[in-house]
Amino acid sequence: MHGLYPGSFDPVTNGHTDIITRAAKLCDTLTVLVSFNPDKAASFSPEERLDLLNKVTADLPNVKCDMWGGLLIDYFDKVQADVVIKGLRAVSDFEHEFQQAHVNKELCAGAETIFLCSDISSTFLSSGVVKQVASFGGDISSFVPAIVLPEIVSRLRKP
Amino acid sequence: MHGLYPGSFDPVTNGHTDIITRAAKLCDTLTVLVSFNPDKAASFSPEERLDLLNKVTADLPNVKCDMWGGLLIDYFDKVQADVVIKGLRAVSDFEHEFQQAHVNKELCAGAETIFLCSDISSTFLSSGVVKQVASFGGDISSFVPAIVLPEIVSRLRKP
Amino acid sequence: MHGLYPGSFDPVTNGHTDIITRAAKLCDTLTVLVSFNPDKAASFSPEERLDLLNKVTADLPNVKCDMWGGLLIDYFDKVQADVVIKGLRAVSDFEHEFQQAHVNKELCAGAETIFLCSDISSTFLSSGVVKQVASFGGDISSFVPAIVLPEIVSRLRKP
Amino acid sequence: MHGLYPGSFDPVTNGHTDIITRAAKLCDTLTVLVSFNPDKAASFSPEERLDLLNKVTADLPNVKCDMWGGLLIDYFDKVQADVVIKGLRAVSDFEHEFQQAHVNKELCAGAETIFLCSDISSTFLSSGVVKQVASFGGDISSFVPAIVLPEIVSRLRKP
Amino acid sequence: MHGLYPGSFDPVTNGHTDIITRAAKLCDTLTVLVSFNPDKAASFSPEERLDLLNKVTADLPNVKCDMWGGLLIDYFDKVQADVVIKGLRAVSDFEHEFQQAHVNKELCAGAETIFLCSDISSTFLSSGVVKQVASFGGDISSFVPAIVLPEIVSRLRKP
Amino acid sequence: MHGLYPGSFDPVTNGHTDIITRAAKLCDTLTVLVSFNPDKAASFSPEERLDLLNKVTADLPNVKCDMWGGLLIDYFDKVQADVVIKGLRAVSDFEHEFQQAHVNKELCAGAETIFLCSDISSTFLSSGVVKQVASFGGDISSFVPAIVLPEIVSRLRKP
């Protein structure tokens, strides 16, 4: 099974790495995809986000990372993935992700989405929280992977 | 009964036309109202949105379309409508729409709102989804009325 | 428009009478229907519930009350109603009522359901709350219509 | 991947068969498990429910059905499954299923649960709806698989 | 501040003891109240539940436990408490608890309720989960306080 | 108990003053804190918002107001508060506020958050509603405290 785990990863958090680790066990191949919209502002460039993901997943042999600025379903077709994988934390996630899953199915009948529930300790964690805390100089060391902590801190800390 | 169906319709989707068709059966007169905020960015101008709605509702004799840049309740009073009509798709709609309904009632005691639940096939559909898919060149033909598809596609497709 | 407002009304509360009063303004005829399941335990018999509703709606000339132990949609067909009317208080109501509305539409394509949002002061009110408070001898005078308060109190108070 | 799809299936609906068909494509082996609690009342006996599932899945070569009256996680261990599979329809499903998934993980660290979202046309469908409609003699032919329709109807229709 | 923490505690879980410990820090006196309905079936008798709570809170000097089979607000008045304290885990808790809080305020204008959010590790935990797992002989040692584990296990394990 | 009630208060509404009044009864000292993000656009400056709060709370002797552009938890430490206090209106509030409460606890183990449920009449009220209505010249006199109504109206009304 070739799984595709898309997200904005702006930046990657421990919540994302939890999903990546667990999804990698279910899949023969897992592609983690930085899905970006060229028209939307983000804190990290797609290249920076991909670079962080590459570092974080370096030890997972069946995981590769990529970036894509188009329709998810086109990438899904291109790499002939079998399933889209998403994490769910809360009710608001649920509604948004189900909408996306149904849109993807409408656009491509074979595009199945499977959901993993977030680890209990990550239910409150999001890229937005990381940026909010870091922008005020707060300690984000329990929110992001240690290997990329310095990079994320230095990019998000205000001058 | 004179019903008033307000929305941003930026642009109209099959979810909107489902509500319009069903609401038109319940009302003697149905006014579909492009409600716009001059200070907020939108993809289509109010005039464009009204034009799309006029085309889409051309075959419904008791439906007329209009646009309004002020307080909904002032338009409601002006045309002496009996009810505001809204569609509900999901829990997040529910909370937002109930807030608006209660605000309208606070501002005008006689302003009753009635809700129709979205057709099953439209629960995942929104103007935002249409714009997201179209901006990447995806196929939106199952999301918007055929009669306005070319206009919407040409306006949303990137250069 | 002939509206059908079904419920278990076990017993009627001020939340129900709020919906009845507002729905009666929207409809030419409103039928308030005690919908009961002969196999389910209830605190009041269908006849008692109907009797309470008749007293509560005596002053509303276009409202009549009835009871029905079968499929809602069969009654809907029998009286040739135009719409089912339901009140919504909270997210949990929303999910249940939407399920019912979609089931009814599946069983009878013409069966439209419209929803009114509960009055702000009734959002916490239900027949279950009335019974819970009354069973402990609490004061339910602000929860049920004054005209049926003595009957409800005497039936629910423990011996 | 060996998937385990547990449920009460009291009785099986088209919503269940949708999940079974899609899950069977993701798994090498899929076990559909009638999970019953000997102390809880049900409309169909575990044996009847299993029999219906066997008929419904007869054409799916990698699907087998079983029943279990103990802790799910013990069955999961016994058959050395890789994942539990569940369908999600609505917000209320979401909360209940996440609770169960976390409990299972607490009891057995390796027990991963993956969720599929219900097909759009099954979001309103449940075993409870089937029983409610059938008990009043309503038409359930669009709710349950044709092959088991007569059995379900004859069991649920009142004398 | 005299806080009143009511619940059915059938039986006490680690989720309850987390709320008790934190509430005890906020209050001068905290009363933990087994609130029971003589007409509703429960797994443990009110006396057994109170006994378990007494053992669990023995080390908390400003906490005392009691039981009550009447209206919460009558006990609140009787002991002249200042606030009702409740834990919130999930959206479904939220709706139920807010309803209760508004009912209590309607019955007694001075009855304020404050909510604590469950500890992350207890969001999936409830008395129902404990009973479900224990009834199948599952390990509940991470769900209930160690001091009362043997009692709870022996009462819930099937013969 | 020293309570800290943070918010953006852009501008203060009757929903905020309801929470302030009730929280002031529970606390020895209550600090109402304008929490602002220097990078985010707001309708009122932090100084203006603080000024409005000072006027609104002038009669409450144990309430003082302040403003803070940093991490909430740093202010909490600085003034040695005992609890953060937040109001909850709806499900969407609930998820956001619980996320914040868990983040604060992660950053500072002693930071307890308590929640009060909004007064029934304020459940639909927010700063956003006030601004939306006022921007169209609507009447906001039932939404904001009378003492600051003229200031808020003159600031929000369009030229």
How would you characterize this protein structure?
- Six copies of one chain form a homohexamer.
- Chain A is built from six helices and five strands, in the order E-H-E-H-E-H-E-H-E-H-H.
- Chain A has 159 residues and is of the alpha/beta class.
- Chain A has a single domain (2-123), classed as Rossmann fold.
- Chain A has a five-stranded parallel β-sheet with strand order 3-2-1-4-5, with helices on both faces.
- Chain A is globular and about 50 Å long.
- The mean pLDDT of chain A is 93.
- The A-D interface holds A 1, 22, 25-26, 82-83, 88, 91, 94-95, 98, 101-102, 112-117, 120 and D 1, 22, 25-26, 82-83, 88, 91, 94-95, 98, 101-102, 112-117, 120.
